[in-house]
Design brief:
The protein folds into two domains: about 230 residues, no CATH class; about 240 residues, no CATH class. Helices cover about 15% and strands about 35% of the residues. The protein is built from nine helices and 34 strands.
Length: about 500
């Protein structure tokens, strides 16, 4: 049995599937994750009952525009809080005539019980408290980072309610603001603390972030103990051409969302489906790739999942599922936030809290590797054998629209839905788990090596809310996004009757 030593919300970063997007834009997006203090390849970070990050490519959809620098000759950076009716947000102006230097930050004071973990850990370069699950991180912003946030509109994510703005201080000559928000989760006693420090003379900023039960005074002590060094190494500012590329990409994403899924990409139970984007050249499969094809053999909805038929050892993490199961195997009600999505695919900032019931979706699958040779990546990492469960809205012409709503769990310990790309869901159960131990199991429970010519049959179990059961689809391959923002063809299988 997998030892449950990590809380669900701390390992969401591990479980996310990467979106296939252009390298240049991907690099900028990942940089922005870190700049905003939400970690690399994280799909979500939350503040008080609000979504602050909608999806992996959200930064590319944000409004873009050039900032006009109107700074005093001696000033490198202007960092100001701008008040709106009920909120405050940052406005940055950077003198791009001055070189942006990397900065080094060392925390000399860390609260007792917090240990720094590396990038490859579930905590992604954060301090973590094993006893209570608290997290703490220190994120530096050089001048190029701040300029990028402002020019792309990503700085809008750094918007908080006036009530959360606890104090304005000065630490080591730096302008300092303290924010405290309730946890996104309705059943969490933790709060999210953010302390922003800005050095306007040298053009940099720092955020100290914590989601924990620590008092704000402890986070201030962390900020007061920071050892900061401006390095000789410089970093480039975002160019106008890069900005234009991101804007074009955002427009392409919006157009793809409006188009939806073509009728030719909708399949039925029993159809064998091959990867439409398998690497081919002159009609032949390129060496080093795998031609694995999938067939959904059957799908059914169950009210209960008896452990006599679905043993605990086949759950990816039974310790996370068990608290949500009644003694008879049915699922307990849970809370979720519903967000509306506009015609461009942009989600609303505020979610509506709902209490809902859910059921199990049991899927019988077959996979066959038609390749003559097993690829090296297949041998080392295995093949993803679990499609994502998602919803689509059928149109009269056979095509499908993307749904007008998205969902996120409002319960801290609930992780059975919505953790994959675009709010899709991973399965919770696989009856042929290959990677069975520790972190490897957490990362790769739904992967397995498949030798050339090998065929396997297996069972997956998903969870879906009762009001979504009429429009369930399985996304067989990950798909992705082209350089212009258009969608890469992705096959779906309709499993709802």
């Amino acid at each position: 049995m997998l030892k449950n030593e990590y809380s669900k919300k701390k390992i969401e970063r591990i479980l996310q599937q990467d979106v296939e997007i252009p390298e240049k834009i991907e690099n900028r997006i990942q940089d922005t994750y870190e700049q905003l203090g939400i970690g690399k390849k994280v799909a979500m970070k939350y503040t008080r009952k609000r979504r602050t990050w909608a999806a992996v490519a959200a930064v590319a959809v944000l409004a873009v525009g050039m900032s006009v620098v109107t700074l005093a000759a001696s000033k490198f950076l202007s960092a100001n809080l701008v008040e709106n009716e009920n909120s405050v947000k940052y406005d940055f102006q950077v003198d791009r005539e001055k070189e942006a230097h990397k900065i080094s930050v060392e925390a000399t004071y860390i609260p007792e019980g917090y240990t720094l973990y590396g990038e490859d850990s579930p905590y992604g370069n954060k301090w973590h408290n094993e006893a209570n699950g608290g997290a703490l991180s220190v994120i530096p912003y050089n001048a190029a980072d701040l300029d990028y946030l402002e020019r792309t509109g990503a700085v809008d994510v750094m918007s908080y309610s006036k009530d959360s703005h606890l104090d304005t201080l000065e630490i080591s000559g730096m302008k300092t603001d303290v924010f405290v928000n309730d946890s996104f989760y309705t059943d969490s006693e933790e709060t999210v603390k953010r302390i922003y420090l800005f050095n306007e003379e040298y053009g940099y900023g720092i955020m100290v972030w914590s989601e924990s039960d620590l008092p704000a005074e402890e986070i201030v002590k962390v900020a007061e103990g920071l050892k900061i060094e401006v390095l000789e190494e410089t970093v480039p500012y975002m160019t106008d051409a890069e900005l234009q590329d991101m804007e074009a990409y955002a427009k392409g994403c919006a157009k793809s969302y409006q188009t939806g899924v073509a009728a030719d990409d909708i399949y039925a139970i029993g159809d064998e489906i091959s990867d439409p984007n398998i690497m081919m050249e002159d009609g032949q499969q390129i060496d080093g790739t795998d031609d694995v094809r999938f067939t959904v053999q059957d799908a059914e909805i169950l009210d209960a999942l008896p452990l006599s038929e679905y043993p605990a050892e086949n759950f990816a993490s039974y310790d996370e599922v068990a608290p949500w199961m009644e003694e008879d195997g049915t699922l307990k009600p849970h809370e979720r936030y519903r967000y509306t999505i506009d015609e461009d695919g942009t989600e609303s900032q505020d979610g509506v809290l709902e209490t809902v019931k859910s059921k199990y979706v049991v899927v019988k699958m077959k996979a066959k590797n038609y390749s003559d040779v097993q690829s090296e990546s297949n041998q080392i990492m295995g093949i993803s054998i679990a499609p994502d469960l998602t919803t689509l809205i059928p149109r009269e012409d056979g095509s499908c629209a993307y749904p007008a709503d998205s969902f996120r769990s409002a319960n801290e310990g609930y992780g059975m839905q919505w953790l994959s790309n675009n709010g899709s869901s991973f399965p919770i159960y696989y009856d042929d788990i290959y990677y069975t131990e520790g972190i490897e199991r957490m990362k790769s429970a739904f992967f397995r090596p498949m030798s050339a010519g090998e065929e396997i049959e297996y069972t997956l179990v998903y969870v879906a809310d009762e009001d979504q059961l009429d429009n369930l689809y399985l996304r067989i391959f990950a798909g992705g996004t082209n350089a212009d923002g258009s969608a890469i063809t992705t096959p779906y299988v309709r499993i709802s009757e």
